[in-house]
Amino acid sequence: MKKIVFVCLGNICRSPMAEFVMKEMTDELHIESRATSSWEEGNPIHRGTQAIFRKHAIAYNQHKTSMRMTREDFLTFDLIIGMDAQNVLDLKAMAPEGTENKIVQFAEKSVPDPWYTGDFDETYSIVREGCRVWLKRIN
Ligand code: 4NP
Question: Which reaction does it catalyse (predicted)?
Answer without folding.
Answer: O-phospho-L-tyrosyl-[protein] + H2O = L-tyrosyl-[protein] + phosphate
